[in-house]
Amino acid sequence: MIHQYKLNGYNVVIDVYSGAIHVVDDVAYDIIRLFCCKIDELHGDTEMFFANLKDDSNSVDEIVKCILGNLALGMYEESEEITEEEIIECCMDLVELYEKGKLFSRDIFRPNASMLKERHTDIKALCLHVSHACDLTCSYCFAGQGRFKGPAALMTEEVAKRAVDYLIENSGDRRNLEVDFFGGEPLLNFDVVKSVVEYARSKEGESNKNFRFTLTTNGMGINDEVIDFVNRECHNVVLSLDGRKEIHDRERRAAGSKVPDYNSSDGYTSVPRGTGSYDIIVPKFQRLVAARTGKDCGDVKVSDIPTWVTRGSDTGNTNYYMRGTFTHYNTDFTKDILHMTELGFDELSMEPVVASHDSEFALTEDDLPIIFEQYEILAKEMLDREKPFTFYHYMLDLSGGPCIYKRISGCGSGTEYFAVTPQGELYPCHQFVGEAEYLMGDIWNGIVRTDVRDEFKMCNVYARPECDDCWAKLYCSGGCAANAYHATGSILGTYDYGCELFKKRIECAIMMQVARVEEL
Amino acid sequence: MKRIKTLETRDLKKSLENGGCGECQTVANQPCENLEAKAE
Q1: Does the CB of A18 have a partner CB in chain B at under 8 Å?
Q2: Which of A45, A100, A395, A487 is most buried, taking the most CB atoms under 10 A from its CB?
C-alpha cells in the first residue's frame, strides 16, 4: 500500500509497510498514480502488475502514452522536453524500488499482531493520580475538574510508595521505568510527589531500575521550591497553557484558593473563584523554563533566579513542553502557538479538545477544513522561522523511530501502562479512570480483570477493520483506545474525527522532513 | 534526470528482528532507545 500527496510544492510518496518515504517530481508522481490504477484493475495483484511491466512492452507503452498526453496538455513545468526514454527510465527506477521492497511493499506484519495476545507483558509505566482535586475549573476538562466522576481526594504517601513497589515487582527485566505525576493538579499534593520520588530513587540501585519522572501541571502551584525539584528530578514537565490570554482565560479559571505568589510578603495570595489564570501562570512558566533550559524566557532572566534553584541545564533535565487545548472557539490555533513563542516558549503542543458532540466548545465537521489549513500554516511557518520551535506532532524520527512492534501495539495502555487512583485502583490509562467497567484491579492485589487486559493486548492496529486500508495505521497504531471508547463505546472502534486530524498532521510532519532534506 | 529521491527511514522489516526491546518511553515520534537497532 502506498499513499501519495502534494503539499507545499512537494510530491510525497509513502510506502506503508516498508516505512520508506520518497519525494518525486510531477512525472514520477503521475506514473505512480497510473501504477495504482493499473494495480486496481488487477484487483490489487501488485506482483502481476510489475511482472507485466517488465515483460510486456505494451504495459510500458501505455504509461508513456499517458504521460506524453499530460505533457501535451501542459501539465508539467519542464524546462526541457520529456522524452519517451526518460519516462521508461523513470518506470524502471520505480520497478527497482519495488524489487528492493521500498514501493508497493506487501504487509508481512499481520501475523505478528495475533501473537501479541499470547505475549507476557511487563509493566513499564504508571500514571500516578496523586490528586483528584484541582485549583482550576477548566470547562473542557475530561477529568471533570480533576475528580474523575468521584469525590475530591489526595493520594497518601503509603499508596504512592506501594505503587512504586508494584511497578518494580511487575516490570520484569525492563530497566527504564516511568512515573507520571498527574491529576487533577499534582502540585496540590507536592509533599507526596517529593517523598515518592525520594523513595523510588532509593530503590533504583537494588532493583537495577532507572526511573524517569514527569509532571503535568496547570502552573498555579509553582514556586522556586517546585522549580528546584522538577529540575533535579523530572525528565520532562508538561505545562498547560492554551495560548492567547482571552483564549486561555475563557476556559481555564480559578476554583478559588491560595496559591504561591512571588510578590506577596508571606509567599501566597488568594485567587477568587472565576479569575482567569493566564496572568498568574505565564510568569511562573517563564521562570520555570528559564531555570530549566538555562536560557532567558520572556521577561525572566536566568540571572534573576536564586542560585540555589537547580538549573535543568546542570542536571540534563531540560525537556518541557507547553500543552495547549484548542476548541471550536479557537480553530485559528496557530495564532495561539505563535503567541507562546512570543512569550519565550519553544517546545509546544496544541491538542484538539475531546468533548461530547453537544458541548458548546466541541469541534464540528465544519471546523475540519479550517483545522487542516491551520496545520499547514503552522508547518510552513516552522520551516520559515529563523528562531526555531518544536511542535510535538511534527517531531517525526524517521531513521531512529519506533520499531514495528511498537507501531503495531501502540501506547501500551492496559498492558504495560496503567493509571493509579488516589485509592490505589488500577485503570488502563488516565482517560479511563472513573469508568467502572475498566477498573482492572489495585496495587495490592494486581490485575484481577485479566479479561480487560486481554482486550487491550488485542487492541492493536490489525484489530480494527476500519484501519485495514488506511495508509497512516503504522504511524498512529490504530489510534487512542480511550478516544475510540468515548466516541463509539468500544476500544476497538475508531474515533474518525481524530483520525482525520492525525493523518493531516502526519502529512505535514513528513512534508517538513522532506523540505529539510531538499534544503541540503 | 533523477526524478525520485528516497529519504533515510528505519527499515520496518528489519525491525522485526532488531525491535521489540520495550525500553522506549510510553507513537511515530517516539525515539527508539535500543541503540544497537539504531546503529544497524
Answers
A1: yes
A2: A487
